[in-house]
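Pipeline run #58 for the internal structure catalog. This entry was flagged by the ingest filter as a single-chain record with no existing model, so it goes straight to prediction. Upstream metadata was stripped on purpose; only the residue string is passed forward. Reviewer on rotation: M.T. Logging verbosity set to normal.
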Amino acid sequence: MKHDFTNNNFQRAAIAPIIGMALSSIGTIAANISGDKTRKELNRLKDIDPQYTESPYAKQQFGLAQTLLNARMPGAADVEKNIYGNQANTQATVERNATDSSQALALAAAGQGATNQAFQQEGIVEGQNQMAKVENYNQGAKAMTDEHQTVYNDNVRRWQDQVNIALARHGIRQQQGQNMSNLGASISSMGGSFPSGGGKAKSSGNSVSQMPSNFFDGD
């Protein structure tokens, strides 16, 4: 059968699928290039995903609280020395100034009472100090517990980020594969869209290889 290549309908019908395939190819290539860039950017973002680290200040605070917890109140030893010194001075004064044994015993008892009261007061102060140190220790322990929980939560977040990035990259790859598959199907079906003689388009299902050998020759 002879083809009328000068027929405008024939030319438009023949060129249309070629233009469509070209546009489809350009779109597919552009989409795949964009997908590759997106996947690389996702990889870059995964590498720079910030990670929470344990606060060194919280660790230092807890370490100091641990050290102070079992240490005696600063200045307590000096207070004891002063109490014992006052007791000795009082006793020496009693021995020098007492006129008889009964007076000496009374003055010594008064001095011992003052000493006992001083030790009692010093014990109260040390007890309050110990309570404050326990409170500091508890606060430090809570701060470290919170830090550990924050680190754990951040690790979970980073893991979820990695999962999301992996899923996104997988989705892009699937879409790229589907684009190429669609393009291949479009190319394979292009042969059936060329017209036969008489200037009218006819879908015959023939492949491109069944077209005349000189169909694409010339201008």
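catalog note: The chain has one domain: 8-189.
catalog note: The longest helix spans residues 101-189.
status: ready for reviewer M.T.
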